[in-house]
Amino acid sequence: MALKGIHHVSAITANAADNYYFYTEILGMRLVKKTINQDDPSVYHLFYADEIGNPGTDLTFFEIPQAGTTYPGVSSISGTSLRVPDDGALTYWEERLTEHGIDHDGITNQGDRHVLHFRDPENQQLTLTSDESNTGVAGGKVWKNSSVPSDKGIIGLGPVKLTVQNPEPTINVLTKTLTFQQTGSYPSPVAGEEEIRVFATGEGGTGAEVHLEVRSDLPRERPGRGSVHHVAFRVNDEDELAEWKNLLQEQRLPNSGLVDRFYFKSLYFREPNGILFELATDGPGFTTDEHPEHLGESLALPPRFESKRKEIEANLAPLDTTKPH
């Protein structure tokens, strides 16, 4: 068994309409699924990705209208990366973010890669990462109707940053339970802190990395809007997912057991620092219940919720996702 890389990252927004505008109009991602939080059907779950939501390209959001301010800290997923094709694309994005008044830090280096750190309107910590020298997991393909040129657009999720106070328990889970290996490190931007360690799995590269940051100066994160709820890693299929469940049980790691999310099968557990990990299958995917040309235009409900559609729709604020770019 070997994890294939990042599957998706799920975060929190307090406003689905504003979130939809930013991620589709400003960042040019495609809304590939407008559905509900299956654990709380009263709120939206929005999936932004490449042209059809290939595994490894999905950034998702739960809408929690009452979500408060996030207070950054340890035991958190503190940064999400989005991959772009090359260094030239970063120059385009630097100009685009400036033009739209989006807070960013300009193009900098992260190890041997060029990156561009920025914040969304709810202060989620995001990074555009250049795939210029990537030789690992391949990226996806920009949607033909994106608001961003196809040679500049976002092609998937990049490295996910975890921030902890005590790194050893997290390292043990990454390397001894999961299939990550440390492949490098780079200096922390915070004076006096350890270098940020880079761990990779599968084919490696930008689509298969976790970056582990140690912060001795921060309390535990208090999550709210703009915080990240969990990161999911890619598993081939349901049979392999069942093997992962057995392994977690053997290692006495409490877990959810297999969960059917309809678009993929999942397994959830928390590593010792309290960060929520998910293992998710590559399929069946988002075209299971919608035509590829019309992904995200209507409220999609897994079959077990279909009988309650009227009640569910009545509890959701209208969100028009049919407008062309």
TrEMBL record:
Gene3D superfamilies for the chain: 2,3-Dihydroxybiphenyl 1,2-Dioxygenase, domain 1 (3.10.180.10)
InterPro entries: Extradiol_RC_dioxygenase, Glyas_Bleomycin-R_OHBP_Dase, Glyas_Fos-R_dOase_dom, VOC_core
SUPFAM superfamilies: Glyoxalase/Bleomycin resistance protein/Dihydroxybiphenyl dioxygenase
Chain ranges of the VOC domain: 5-131, 156-282
Name recorded for this polypeptide: Glyoxalase family protein
Phylogenetic classification of the source organism: Bacteria, Bacillati, Bacillota, Bacilli, Bacillales
